[in-house]
Design goal:
Number of helices: 1
Oligomer: single chain
Shape: elongated
Radius of gyration: 21 Å
Length: 66
């Protein structure tokens, strides 16, 4: 319900420590870059879908109740 804000600072620190242990300090920049690119592509796709949906709603003829 609260999303990522519900994690809090201690939870975020624990997650970052686990990621650092799993990937090590050398791989961390690569992992961060890959996550950033993935999120960017996801946002572009979501925005495109929403724009397509808005265009579809605008193009549909309005039904009259007569």
């Amino acid at each position: 319900m609260g999303g990522i804000a519900a994690i809090g600072v201690p939870g975020l620190i624990i997650i970052l420590v686990i990621v650092l242990i799993l990937f090590g300090p050398r791989k961390l920049p690569e992992v961060g870059s890959a996550v950033g690119k993935t999120l960017s592509e996801f946002k572009k796709s979501a925005k495109g879908i929403m724009e397509d949906d808005d265009e579809t709603v605008l193009k549909e003829p309005k039904k009259s109740d007569q």
